[in-house]
Amino acid sequence: MPANFSPDATGHIAALMVYPVKSLAGIALAQARLLETGLEWDRHWMVVDARGLFVTQREIPRMALVQPHLQPQALELHCPGWNPLSVAFSARGERTRVQVWDDALEALDTGDEAATWLQQVLQHPGLRLVRFAPEVTRPCSTRWTQGVPSRTEFADGYPVLVTTEASLVPLNARLSAAACLPVDMRRFRPNLVLGGFEVHDEDHMARLQVEVGPESAPAQLALVKPCARCPIPNVDPATGESHPGVGDALQAYRRDARLNGAITFGMNGIVESGAGQLLRVGQVVAAVYGFD
Predict the structure, then answer these.
(1) Who's near 2: CB < 8 A, 6+ residues apart?
(2) Exposure winner among 128, 175, 280, 287, fewest CB in 10 A?
(3) DSSP 3-state assignment of 182?
């Protein structure tokens, strides 16, 4: 490891997840290319309403049932009972104004066929599928990055979301005590799931270093902001139905003083170095902790 990186603990990448369309189902990958904006294809497309405002499982829990597939030349969307939709990577589409949280920006509309498919499958009029325009830059807020610039595509705020496998253990124990079924990490929609660390170690990690290979410099991520949780973890990815059990369990022990008592699970991160490198399940991850 570089001389200026002295790890406090080491583990490994247990899972890599991308969500090509914001708030649709995710894809588990054996490897994924790290870009400055996050993992390649992550939140590259987004569903918007007739006003151009982003739509998520908060409003339409059924979105969890739509499964993206990344084909060599196209994005495919599948939903039980429906013929799949194919959207070619080469399709540019008309420019349109969209909004994701406080950011208004131009995106590329993917056309009427995709819009009709989404409206029928999700049973909501006016929906359209947009793609992040390659010439657009969406900067992240520097409030939590200590002034370090970063950018992302349609993610909520930062390029990557990191959790640890162990962090599910106390949650599922509480769910079991409340006579609720256990949940898996899909509820929390992370990009990197780390193994070999203690429960909620990610809360205290300042930096991660991923050993990508003997011939390549390691990739480094800075973990900058706890991830505040909305009702989406209540949505069962297998059924598209929402139940308050997960949120109720988290309320009991995951209030975060750093966000004025908001419920948090996982940490948002930015890419400090290593854009262009391939991350793989099993790679060694070293962590430096930072305590206030």
Answers:
(1) 218
(2) 280
(3) coil
